[in-house]
Amino acid sequence: xxxxxxxxxxxxxxxxxxxxxxxxxxTLEEKLQVARQLARLNVDIIEAGFPAxxxxxxxxxxxxxxxxxxxxxxxxAGLARANRDDIEKAWSAIQPAANKRIHTFMxxxxxxxxxxxxxxxxxxxxxxxxMVGFAxxxxxxIEFSPMDAGRSDPAFLREAVAVAVAAGAxxxxxxxxVGYLTPDEYGAMIADLYNNVPGIKECIISxxxxxxxGVAVANSLAGVRAGARQVxxxxxxxxxxAGNASLEEVVMAIHTRGxxxxxxxxxxxxxxxxxxxxxxxxxxxxxxxxxxxxxxxxFAHESGIHQDGVLKHRQTYEIMSAETVGLDGNELVLGKHxxxxxxxxxxxxxGVELDSEEEFQHIFERFKELCDRKKRVDDRxxxxxxxxxxxxxxxxxxxxxxxxxxxxxxIPTATVRLIGPDGTMHxxxxxxxxxxxxIYAAINRIVQRPSELIEFSINAITEGLDAVAEVxxxxxxxxxxxxxxxxxxxxxxxxxxxxxxxxxxAQQIFSGYGVHTDTIIAxxxxxxAALNKMLAAHEERIKAEAVAYAAGYTTD
Length: 556
Ligand code: KIV
Ligand code: ZN
Description:
The protein has helices at residues 14-18, 28-41, 55-68, 84-93, 110-117, 121-138, 154-167, 183-196, 216-225, 247-256, 258-261, 272-283, 304-312, 340-349, 357-373, 379-389, 435-447, 486-492, 519-550, and strands at 9-12, 45-49, 75-81, 100-107, 142-147, 171-176, 204-209, 230-233, 398-407, 410-419, 425-431, 451-460, 469-477, 509-516. The protein is α/β, with parallel strands linked by helices. The protein folds into three domains: 9-283, Aldolase class I (TIM Barrel, Alpha-Beta Barrel); 304-389, no CATH class; 398-550, Alpha-isopropylmalate synthase LeuA, regulatory domain (Double Stranded RNA Binding Domain, 2-Layer Sandwich). The strands form three sheets. It has an eight-stranded parallel barrel, surrounded by nine helices. Helix 3 crosses helix 19, helix 7 packs across helix 8 (183-196) and helix 12 (272-283) packs parallel to helix 16. The longest helix has 32 residues, at 519-550. Bound molecules: 3-methyl-2-oxobutanoic acid and zinc ion. Its cofactor is Mn(2+). Pathway: Amino-acid biosynthesis; L-leucine biosynthesis; L-leucine from 3-methyl-2-oxobutanoate: step 1/4. Mn(2+) binds at residues 17, 208, 210, 244. Belongs to the alpha-IPM synthase/homocitrate synthase family. LeuA type 1 subfamily. It comes from Candidatus Viridilinea mediisalina.
C-alpha cells in the first residue's frame, strides 16, 4: 500500500462516535479542550463531530477546525450522511481547517438497506456513486464508510467499495458497526477488499470496530495486519453501546509489538494518560482500575513474586513502562515549600497550558491548600487538581463553604454556603442518610432545580491515607420529557434523511468532577460542577445556535 507502508494513521472519533453515546455529551469548551489535547497527542485525524446533527454540533466542528486545524496540525473531519445537505454542512463546518476531510457513509448490509433505509442494492450503489462524487467535487480528502460492512454480503461490499473508490474516495473505512465479527473474520474482510477492489491500493483502508463482543481492539489490529493503514478509535474506548476500539490500547499494542505488526504510529505516547484523564473527567465516566494502559492498576504490581521480580529487573513483569504513557508521577517533586516558580515549571513540564495569570493564581491557591493537607504532592495530584479546577463549567453557583457532621450515632447534617449568579450568598442546611446526602440536599434547597443522581464514584488518585480523592457524579435533569437518543434514531428511522437525526435531543445527563483530600468536600465540588453544567446547558445551546447561524449554518 503506497505512501503509507509503515505508518498507521490514528483517526480519533472521541468527539463524534464517542461523544454521541448517551451521557458522554461535552460542552463546546470541553470539546475544544479535548481537540487541543488530541493535537498534542499528535493524532493524524480528528473527527470533530457530525455537523448536520444540530447547529450546536456544526458550531463545535467549526470552532475546532478554526482553533486546532492548523497547517501542521491534524486533519479535521466532519461526518455526513450520504445526502447533499449533510455533505454541504460538513464542508462548511470544516472550512477553517488547513487540512479537511469529509467523511460520508451509507449502509451496505441487506438488513440495514431493507429495514432501515428501504433501498435496493442498486439504489445504494447509486447513492454512493453520486454522493461520494459530490463530496469529492468539494474536497480532495474523502472518506467513505459502508456502514455495517461486517454483516454485508462480501461480494456486494466489494462492489460498493469499488464504486466509492471510482467516485473519488481516498480513504475506505470498513465499520463493524455492531461489533459482530471475530478478529479472523475482520482481518479476512480487510484482506479481501485489499486484494480484490480495483484501485484500493492507492487509497487508505481504515478500521472502525465496535466492542460489543469485547474484541474491537483485536479486530482493529487484525485489520492492520491485513493491510489497513488507518485505525478509528476513541479515548478510553468510549462510544455507542460497548464503545469503540480504544486509542490507547491500539497505539500501545503497535508501539510495544512494532516488529510483529511491522508498522508504527506518530502518536506522542507520553500524552496518553493525560488525554484519558481529561476525557474521563469531562464525560463523568471514570476509567476502570483494571483498564489496559490507563487504568490505575495497569502498572501496579501487587503479588509478592511480581514485586520481587520487578525490583530485581523491571522487565521480568513489565512489557512497557508507565513513563511511556505519561504515568511517571511517583516522584516527590513539589511540596509545602514550593513556590509559584516551581509550580509554573512543573505545569509547563506536564504540558498544562493556562489561559491567564488569574487561572494560574487560582491553581496556585488550590495547590497550597493541597500541600497543607498532603505531604507528598506528585504529578498525578497536580494533574487531577488542574483537571478539577479547569473544567470551564460556568460557575453559576460557586461553593463557598461546606461544613458537615456525621458519626456512628448522630444524624448526618450539612450546612452549605453558595454564591449565586448575581453574587448573593445563599446558606442552607439539611440532614441526610449520610454526609454526602445531607450536603446534596442542602445544595438542592438552594439551587431549586430537580435532578436525579444516577452515578457517584470515588477514586484515590495516589496511594496513602492522605491521598487526594476524585469524585465523579452524573445527574439527570428531571421534569423534562425524556426524548429519543441517538442510538434509537439510528435504528428506528426509515430513510437516509432521518438516520441519526435527533441525536441532539438525547437524554440530558450531566457530569461533574471534584478533587480534594476530603472525600466529602470533593463530592460537594463534583455535584456543584454537574449542576452548573446542567444550568448552563440551555444557555449554551442558544449561544451555539447563534454562533452557527452567524457563521453560515443554514436549515432547509
Ligand atoms: O459504526 C459505524 O458504522 C459508524 C459509521 C458512521 C462510520 O460510526
Ligand atoms: Zn461507529
